[in-house]
Design a protein that fits this description.
Elements lengths: L1 H17 L10 H24 L13 H19 L5 H24 L4 H24 L3
Helix pairs in contact: 2-3, 2-5, 3-4, 4-5
């Protein structure tokens, strides 16, 4: 009886050493770089709008920026799809969905008003900065 119990414990010990439980997806350096690049692109978009244009005289008419809105939306969708394809990645998917929804909301507001104030640009920048920071940290933590 003792010998059988020892064998069973030994076998279970070997099996437990060979098993690995993953609760997070693997780290992806290219994904982290893509997030950082997109965050820079969004920041540059709003910074240029803030400092290179004026709200008066249709200086911030939606049409002048629609191409950039669509490019960034495309990149956000790409990021979402890539994160959805990775197993165990629900948190990053949710953050990407929030980023995309927020971007679409800001784009629609600009489109509906056909202008955007300095205050709204700064608020949009802050909210999106916090989302990109969350995404970057989420990816960075997967290195562990």
């Amino acid at each position: 009886m003792k010998r059988t119990t020892l064998k069973l414990i030994f076998i279970l010990g070997i099996l437990s050493l060979s098993c690995k439980v993953r609760l997070l997806p693997d780290y992806h350096a290219a994904m982290e770089q893509k997030i950082e690049d997109l965050a820079k692109h969004v920041d540059a978009f709003y910074t240029n709008m803030l400092f290179d244009t004026e709200e008066q005289n249709n200086g911030r008419a939606y049409q002048k920026f629609s191409k950039f809105y669509h490019q960034i939306e495309y990149e956000l969708k790409w990021l979402l799809y890539r994160n959805q394809a990775r197993p165990l990645n629900q948190n990053s998917v949710k953050i990407c969905q929030n980023a995309l929804e927020l971007w679409q909301k800001y784009k629609k507001q600009h489109q509906d008003k056909n202008t955007i104030s300095n205050a709204n640009i700064e608020l949009n920048m802050k909210y999106l900065e916090s989302i990109f920071t969350s995404l970057i940290l989420s990816e960075h933590l997967k290195k562990q």
